[in-house]
Amino acid sequence: MKELDAKDRDILAILSKEARIPLKTLAARIGLSRSATSERVALLEKSGVIRGYRADIGQLEQNQVFAFLMVTLVRTPSIGMLDQLARHPEVRRVSSISGQVDLVVEVEVPSIDRLNTLRDLIASHQSVEDLTSLIVLRRDIDRI
């Protein structure tokens, strides 16, 4: 792919905020013809700069608690711990990371009580040295 110029950066800035903008409107805003804009967008998609378009959906249910559990293990890897985490449907994602914490566990539960129960189950596993809970208060940017 060629290096991005000012028009390409303008296209990306607009599409990152308004993914469903009509091509005609996008072209007018960046000062190019519709066909030139279409060609640029196609090249940005083909080169992988634009990887997709998405809907930014807010929280669907009020009674959901999102949290990150930061897990420090006695030793890594701990397949038994991963197996236990996989048994819980509230566990949405587990990431092994570098640093003092070994796992970041993203959970979605219906209540704080359920979060505490899940947290206690995980913390009691023999391979867990320490566990810290971080409750999500608000998602300001969510591109997943």
TrEMBL record:
It comes from the Bacteria. InterPro entries: AsnC-type_HTH_dom (IPR000485), Dimeric_a/b-barrel (IPR011008), Tscrpt_reg_AsnC-like (IPR019888), Tscrpt_reg_AsnC/Lrp_C (IPR019887), WH-like_DNA-bd_sf (IPR036388), WH_DNA-bd_sf (IPR036390). Residues 4-65 form the HTH asnC-type domain. Keywords: DNA-binding, Transcription, Transcription regulation. SUPFAM superfamilies: Dimeric alpha+beta barrel, Winged helix' DNA-binding domain. Gene3D superfamilies: 3.30.70.920, Winged helix-like DNA-binding domain superfamily/Winged helix DNA-binding domain. It comes from Mesorhizobium hungaricum. GO terms for biological process: response to amino acid. PROSITE patterns: HTH_ASNC_2. One of its GO terms (cellular component) is cytosol. One of its GO terms (molecular function) is sequence-specific DNA binding. This is AsnC family transcriptional regulator.
